[in-house]
Amino acid sequence: MKLLHTLTAAATSLLLASQSSQAALTLYEGFEYTSGDDLDGNGSGIGFGSNLWTGLNSSGTNPHSVGSGLSFGSLEVTGGSAERDIRNGRSTATRLIAASSVTDLTADNTTIWFSVLMDPTINTATTGGQPANTYGTLIFGNAGLTDSSSGTQNGAGTTIANSGDAVGVGFFGNTTFAGVGIQGVTFSDGTIDQGNGASNAITTGDSLSLIVGRIDWAADGSNDTITLYDVTDPAAGLPGTAFSTMTLDVDQTTFDTISISGGQTEAFDEIRFGTELADVIPVPEPSSSLLLGLGSAALLLRRKRA
């Protein structure tokens, strides 16, 4: 009986520890919606309250829709993705976050983390993306994106509403799919900055990437810093070197919006924001297997006693 109680207590403790290890996850969007539906009008996840996605067809065609979910190594994933399944036109999708999430993610002199799965083109057939025009973008800011870049390979034509401020990440195009890459993006008073150089970008080609961002908020009057990492193995954590570091001075306490844009067939998925790195690259914990073993042992002992 003592052994049975010990096994049960250990399993319970491990379960609680597993649950608490991700307790600081503030915002999560896994796009658990009906495949093929427009993203506009949908809303679930963590940290958004009752706010729904709102879509804008900046060129009048092909809004963001719900696509198949993306997966990446051992990263925990759910649901579908946000995608543009046909390259014609350009569109954006924006979602407000809950007031409590704003408070948790925007305090001065704090560090937060985010992650996202990004695929530059989910369809390279006749309706698929063109490498020169791949410029989808994800931002966290105080306004939504109003258009995706048109006619510029580096995405410099991407625009934000209300002279907004934001930080984020986006694709840049090339003459071939092999040259497509990812870069840091910031907005200050409506003006976009992408670093304009190889020091702020990586070449990924037509492949799925897991990007992790670290944001260090400073007090007003001092520069905030956004640092981006290309993670190849979620279980191994961050690589030794970041591929992008950008600074700007904004009042991040006004940041209450997540927004994505696209003009080709980009897909975004598994958007996470939290206060710890482990919150944004969750992988199944070793304790899960131990829990299963303890549970089986406890059940076997109970059966023997019966």
UniProtKB/TrEMBL annotation:
> Taking every annotated instance into account, which residue ranges of this chain make up the domain Ice-binding protein C-terminal?
282-304
Can the keyword DNA-binding be found in this entry's annotation?
no
Instruction: Give the protein's recorded name.
Output: PEP-CTERM sorting domain-containing protein
What are the record keywords, sorted? Signal
Does Signal appear among the keywords? yes
Q: Origin, by domain of life?
A: Bacteria
> Where are the coiled-coil regions?
none
From which residue to which does the signal peptide run?
1-23
Classification via NCBIfam families: PEP_CTERM (TIGR02595)
